[in-house]
Every structure is written in structure tokens, then in C-alpha cells.
Specification:
With about 70 residues, the protein is mainly alpha-helical. It is about 45% helix and about 5% strand. It has one domain (about 5, about 20-65): Arc Repressor Mutant, subunit A. The protein is globular and about 20 Å long.
Length: about 70
């Protein structure tokens, strides 16, 4: 799914590539990045290290659920 399919595009307005998802404003772009990295063979631990997220948060994004915050 492309970002423009996720976030409606308003003709004449600048395209904003993020939208808040969950309590702490995890962006759609970050979720897409995490899922793409996983699709390309990265483990949850590798994704967490590369994106400065907790492993639990990465696993929640990959499962399609809400992020987990400590």
C-alpha cells in the first residue's frame, strides 16, 4: 500500500507523509518502514536497533497492533 492510499491527498496542499497512529503518535511512515525492513529479511531485533525502538514495539507494529510503551 502506498502512503497516498493511506493518507488522503488534498489537491493543492503540500503532501504530509505522516499521520498519528496510537497514543504517542507513531507515524504511518515508520510503520511502513518497519514492515518493509521485515519483508526484506531484517529481524525484529535488527529493526529495533536500526530505528531506535523497543523490540516489543517493533513486534507490535509487525503484528498490526498498537505499539507497546513501557
Amino acid at each position: 500500500m502506498k502512503p497516498k492510499e493511506i493518507i488522503p491527498y488534498i489537491e493543492g496542499e503540500p503532501y504530509i507523509g505522516e499521520a498519528p497512529v496510537g497514543e504517542r503518535g507513531i507515524t504511518v511512515g515508520e510503520a511502513i518502514l518497519v514492515k518493509t525492513m521485515n519483508k526484506n529479511g531484517f529481524t525484529a531485533e535488527q529493526i529495533a536497533a536500526a530505528t531506535d525502538k523497543d523490540v516489543e514495539e517493533v513486534e507490535a507494529i509487525l503484528a498490526g497492533g498498537e505499539p507497546v510503551f513501557a
